[in-house]
Amino acid sequence: MSTSSPTAPLATAANDRAVPLSLSRVRSAWLFVTPMLIVMVLVAGWPLARTLWFSLTDADLKDLGAAKFIGLDNYVGPYSVTTDPDWWRAVFNTLRFAVVSVAIETVLGMVVALVLDADFPGRSIVRAAVLVPWAIPTIVSAKMWAWMMNDQFGVLNRVLMALHVVGHPLAWTANPSLAMPSVIMVDVWKTTPFMALLILAALQMLPKDCYEAARVDGVSPVKVFFRVTLPLIRPALMVAVIFRLLDALRIFDLIYVLTSSSKDTMSMSVYARQQLVDFQQVGLGSAASTLLFLMVALCTALYITLGRVNFDGDAR
Amino acid sequence: MADVRLRAVNKRFGSVQVINAVDLDVGEGEFCVFVGPSGCGKSTLLRIVAGLEDVSSGTLAIGGRDVTRLPPSARGVAMVFQSYALYPHMTVYDNMAFGLTLAKTDTQDIDARVRKAAEILSLTPLLGRLPKALSGGQRQRVAIGRAIVRKPGVFLFDEPLSNLDAALRVQTRIEIAKLHASLGASMIYVTHDQVEAMTLADKIVLLNSGEAMTRDGSVAQVGKPLDLYHRPANLFVAGFIGSPRMNILKGVVAAASGERAEVAFRDGSRAAARVDAGAATIGDAVFLGIRPEHVAIGTGEGVAGTASHVEHLGEASYVYLESPALDGLLTVRQAGDTPARAGETLAVTLPPQHCHLFDAAGRAFPRHMEPGAHTTRSLITAMT
Amino acid sequence: MTKLLQRAGLYGLAAIITVYSLFPFYYAIVSSTKTGSALFRADLLPRLNLGNYAAVLSQGVFLRNILNSVVVAVAVVAVSLFIGLTASYALGRVTFRGRKLLLLSILGISMFPQVAVLSGLFELIRALGLYDSLPGLMLAYLIFTLPFTVWVLTTFMRDLPKELEEAAIMDGATPWVIVRKVFMPLLWPALVTTGLLAFIGAWNEFLYALTFTLSPEKRTVPVAIALLSGSSQFELPWGPIMAASVVVTVPVVGLVLIFQRRIVSGLTAGAVKG
Fold it and tell me: Which residues on chain B are in Cβ contact (under 8 Å) with A22?
């Protein structure tokens, strides 16, 4: 009754190995991962190890090969990173920047996210507008704001004076007490969209029925926000905040372009690079880099555990 | 077409055993259905035959070759998935041709095979379409077509009807049966629906789950559909096959012989079963089983009580009887309408030739069945 | 009445947010159209004066710098997507020992502060003879584009249906065929998103570009703009700087606006969902 001739299985490449499926898949997996591994070791693993090594030597940029091992002298010796008041200044700057910046971005980001979550005509225009600061390259943002904050011709000073908030033009980036606030101001402008997007994603995943119930009950929107919304998005919010904090600890571009190597705003990254490139002190610079790396690594561990980042998850 | 032989197959996921000691044969050209409650491992067993899961121990042979360690495409099998799993970006033609293209089959051969399969499944006008432009039933046919073109020794179906609505399900069920008849291929079919099992199978494999699986092995009973219907090997099989479920009545042995056994219920009423009860002793706790369609309303050897509830379906009526003889309700199926009313006192007879007997452990005593028990008439009344 | 107030408040807030977001860029455009002493005046409307643009684009190597940025970003993104695609298949769909550790390291690497590898990378690039060259930058950029690409693509890979893959396996497809012929067509939106985000990251990069290039014609755009200097040591050519900024920003902003939805979903996939 059957018109088909049976069983000779099709000669595909998969048949050539008399190996069960699970085994061949694992082998293929390792094959697929190897290029990435090679690149990562080359570009990340090895340089990191070298930096670590350099931090334990007296290396100089002019002649890296002549580096001699000096143990932890770059870390704790008499002429080391931890005895350099500029380093601690940099640490303080970075921490201050990170905390203040992220705090403001979170609050503003929350406001923006709430606005974007609401339904009103023109919402898409606002959303597009909000993406623009994020899209603009950091250097360009720095230059644009530097121009706006220019002490003689900047529009910021002009507006403030016109509103009688200040009596004379302020030197935003040059004035030591205003420099960090300027940097924070630009970073907030640039990064709030990112926070807003993350928070918006979390908001949009919330079940709508809570709100409808609250509305039927006549609860005021403010109360709804603090009692219902906030607790529900807290986990996602925590993850976003830590993610941003990690980013903020690494800051380099903005500070360098806006205030160059000024001690008032120098971040740890700026300090490390200054040691490395400007002062040619590869040993010290590497030590500073390593310390920063350890700090970030600690926070990353926090992020991974608190955020319960998903490392499992087979295909569903 | 090829036969399938499983020997001593076990499967564990980590420390959890899901398949226990399966010995099974599927003959050439046979339509074999794996059926059972959820968690019994029927899909896993199918995937083991397919090669998508490895066995933890045991062997598998297809068409006489040991395929235990071979990858799926080397086994000469083809699978139809529950969700059809059509390649969304490929046309119906390309979906069906994909496996053959990978095997570098000659293009003319591919074309011939695809068109032949499309013709069998009435898919020819749809060959240029993408899956998203097809209905559920059409997608399912494409999935089947994809299997047909591979000319496999064994077709594997993983609950193919569960994503279809009720009407389509019946129609497709008939199409699959006709397909089997015309292709004559060996087919292994997994379902949780015992109606599909009864109507499609040449052979049913009913699988145990949970404790019964660990204790007795995965296979509860293997046999022709009507064998499982008329001679369930244990309480589990008896309860699974047949809808509505068989009535199970608790009692004790009052008399036993090689020809029949008499069972006494707690209020003294009695019933008898035509079974070989030679191994039973008087006083043993037993279960008497009788299907709702075999219970007759009237006085005689049976039980009495009040009709607690009556359901009218038009084609049949169900009377639920409460009786001091029994713990639960006795379901009685009557063809057409019934004069019985709720609250009425009622007596029912339990004809011995239709009664099953199970020992305290749930094992069935062998039944003596009248020749002609498989007549067309009883077949029709038996099938719901 | 409160409803009306709420509505008004909402629109007011939306307006403030929009102005706050767009004003600096708008002002940059305005400033870029002013030359000479016009810069020092307060008006907020752009003029039809493209002098600054002409100056920036014709003088020196700015056009070359734009080309450099494009070449580097495209190359890095292409390599990252290719390597990332295969790696993400393994990491997202195959269970193998060491997978967790690999994913952990990838996440870790993407969190590296760039300075942490600066000295090591510097030595490596110099040793390979790639200092002050575009390939040197491409190599360095992989340190952040590759982990990011792998991470985001793995998330997308995980979400593809298992039965589809199994059907392909039954059809005799090797993993490479599955990636190429079954998954890639389904993944191309994810590839576009990831590619775009990685492109923007590479386009924006400053530290490595600053440290690993020397000659003006090897610079990328961010460095070029940062180092744009005027005729005298103390005078910054704001007009040309704004013009350069606008030139560099308009394409990126354009891309982001066009691919808004994709970018947003890619960002959240990478960061929050994890």
Answer: 54
Do C243 and A147 touch, CB atoms closer than 8 A? no
Which of C18, C120, C157 comes nearest A50 by C-beta?
C120
What does residue B349 show for φ and ψ, rounded to 5 degrees? -105, 150
Residue B63 contacts residue B27 (beta carbons within 8 Å): no
Minimal Cα distance from A21: which residue of B? B71
**Residue B327 — φ and ψ, nearest 5°?**
-75, -55
Where does A10-84 have alpha helices with state H? Answer: 21-40, 46-55, 73-76
- Average the pLDDT over C38-54 and give the result: 73
Q: What is the pLDDT of residue B375?
A: 47
Give the residues across from B57 on adjacent strands.
B10
CB contact under 8 A, B76 and A6: yes
- Rounded to the nearest 5 percent, the helix, strand and coil shares of chain C are 80, 0, 20
Mean pLDDT calculated for residue range A19-31 = 87
The model's confidence at residue A8, banded by pLDDT at 50, 70 and 90, is low
Tokens of C218: 């090897």
Give me the helix-helix angle, C260-268 and C184-204, nearest 10°. 90
Does the pTM surpass 0.80? The reply is: yes
Cβ neighbours of A13 in B, within 8 Å: 102
Query: Which residue of chain C has the CA closest to A195?
Result: C268
Q: Is the CB of A138 less than 8 angstroms away from the CB of C204?
A: yes
A positions 45-104 inside 8 Å of B (CB):
none
Q: Token digits for A123? A: 């919402």
List the beta bridge partners of residue B26: B4
Out of A6, A11, A19, closest to residue B71 by CB: A19
Region B287-293: what's the mean pLDDT?
94
pLDDT at A146 (0 to 100): 87
Whole-number pLDDT of residue C235:
66
| pLDDT at position C1 | 64
SS3 B246: coil
Residue of C50, C202, C67 lying closest to C141 (CA atoms): C202
ipTM surpassing 0.90: no
Chain A interface disruption, residue of C29, C95, C119, most A CBs within 10 A: C119
Which chains, if any, share at least 3 CB pairs under 8 A with chain B? A, C
Distance between CA atoms of B35 and B193, rounded to whole angstroms? 7
DSSP structure string for C118-140:
HHHHHHHHHHTT-TTSHHHHHHH
Q: Which residues of B touch A (CB under 8 A)?
A: 1-2, 29, 51-52, 54, 62-63, 68-76, 99-100, 102-105, 150-153, 181-185
CA-CA distance, C182 to C177, in Å (whole number)?
Answer: 7
Is a pLDDT exceeding 90 seen at residue B130? yes
Q: Which residues of A touch C114 (CB under 8 A)?
A: 250, 252, 269
